[in-house]
Amino acid sequence: MPIKWIGFDLDDTIFNGTLLVEKARQASIRMMIEYGLPVPEEYAIQLLDEIVIEFGSNDEHHLDNLLLRLKNDSKFRIGQEHNVNKYVAAGVMGYHREKVKHFKPFKDVIKTLEKLKSLNIKTAIITDGSPKKQYEKILRLKIEDLVDDIIISDEVAVRKPNPELFTYFLERYNCKPNEVIYVGDRLDKDIEPANKIGIITVLVHRGTKYDPKKLKQRINIKPNYHVNSLYELFKIIKLEES
């Protein structure tokens, strides 16, 4: 059966989102300290990491919550004399200044997308998240013209790991599951839902946050293929089409 489409997750599949967020959060803390926040950098980063875990990575009030927590902190309590709005503004400035440095596709991305286009295999980004945030990443990565479609979960009101996101894609292009390959970095959100509807799944190992090689717990979800580079997709295509 010929492969008609290859879909890709975005964060930690196309670019190193783990590194970007880590460096940007550290930069936000350093900028807040530069503008007067009287808290050691290491301690503030530790608190911010805790807040991200508790409230989720997509929450928009991490820095506000950090300062609220510091108002009641037993070690480094900040008082009324401190301008928390200034600190938040400084943190946002530091975050955005740093993050733009890390919007770079992994080295195998551009050539892989170009070669797939030359083979007349269509490509799509299928990703979770806020459309504005995800489109910003895609535009900064300069890959919009290299893919044939972009599907962002919040535009269709279905988020991974709900397999309906992939069903939506198949119906949109009238494809059979075995005509589509999906590449992602997460077993739970990328591989499992695509497996459920029969799409050919490829887990790419990037050494990032959710790479099973880095996770301590074992997850009993198996992709059809494991790869360390997107260049390995061309062998998979030959195997599936033979």
TrEMBL record:
MF terms in GO: metal ion binding; phosphatase activity
Keyword Zinc-finger recorded: no
Coiled coil: none
Cofactor(s) of this protein: Mg(2+)
GO process terms (BP): small molecule metabolic process
Gene3D superfamilies: 1.10.150.520, HAD superfamily/HAD-like
Key word Chloroplast present: no
Organism superkingdom: Archaea
Key words, A-Z: Hydrolase, Magnesium, Metal-binding
Role summary: Catalyzes the dephosphorylation of D,L-glyceraldehyde 3-phosphate in vitro.
UniProt-listed PANTHER family: GLYCERALDEHYDE 3-PHOSPHATE PHOSPHATASE (PTHR46470:SF2), N-ACYLNEURAMINATE-9-PHOSPHATASE (PTHR46470)
Family: Belongs to the HAD-like hydrolase superfamily.
Protein name as annotated: Glyceraldehyde 3-phosphate phosphatase
